[in-house]
Amino acid sequence: MANFAYMSGTGNDFIVGKYEGEVSEIQIIALVSDAEYEVDGVIFVEPLKNNSVKMHYYNNDGSDAELCVNGVRCVAKYALDNNYLSAVRFTVKTPVGNLDVYVDDNIVEVSTPIPSYEEEKINVNIYEGVKSSIGNPHFMIEVDNVDVIDLEKLNAEIVNEKLFPDGVNVEIYQIVNRNYIKARVFERGVGETDACGSGALCIFNYLNKTDQIDNNSYVMYPGGDLNLRFENNNLYLLGEVRYL
To answer: Which of 54, 77, 112 is where one domain is finished?
Structure first.
């Protein structure tokens, strides 16, 4: 893996390096096991023409993922810092489409797809949740206190219900006020992570569209805060990216 770096996008930690061709699941697992830090995934950045780069993302178990928004933000900073392009606004090509990014030092903003969600709620034992998707699937559950929930156990209960044959990211959230939401996430193929960009987008979109929170709000994860807003019918997420 050429010119690799350890990077964190608001608590999601990755190995990031230049793309040199296809890799196997075994190669990804080997990279993760030899890493100096616990990482959520491995990302390869492929320089392209026309002011863009391509993102190749793998979960830490070697499996593919449709979208990792915090990974996209790490790709953006890595590409700019390694002179793959010179403009601070450019495009990152992902499996779910082309995402426009803006890099301002350690703060990276990405314009994202708008998630969908199902209005009919689903009951799993004592919990009630909402299905949402932004290219990858999420199941969002409101709780009174995110800090006291056994998230691994809850995830196992949801998986056992076989509602999501392709797996799902399980989100729990707590509305603090109209502009702040606390959240935790158990990501498929990874486990509990310190943040989840796509999960934050799903939570924010659902709560804003159902008039439970205001525009320009924050989803607060153990790894840090993500700011989300609608502007001219476009959805934006921004947060810090740093090197470990």
So the answer is: 112
- The answer on 132 and 66 residing in a single domain is no
CATH number of the domain that residue 27 is part of: 3.10.310.10
Residue 2 has what pLDDT?
Answer: 67
Question: Which one from 16, 43, 68, 238 is the annotated catalytic residue?
Answer: 68
42 token code pair: 């491995």
Residue pLDDT, tens place only, 171-185: 999 999 999 999 999
Q: Are residues 31 and 84 located together in one domain of the fold?
A: yes
- To the query of whether residue 202 is one of the catalytic residues in this protein, the response is no
Active site residue 68: yes
- pLDDT per position as a tens digit, 115-143: 999 999 999 989 999 999 998 999 999 99
- Active-site pick, 196, 201, 219, 237: 196
- The structure tokens listed for 24 are 């196997």
Domain count, the chain: 2
pTM reported for the whole predicted model:
0.91
- Check if the beta carbon of residue 185 is closer than 8 Å to that of residue 171: yes
- The dihedral of CA 210, 216, 222, 223: what is its sign? positive
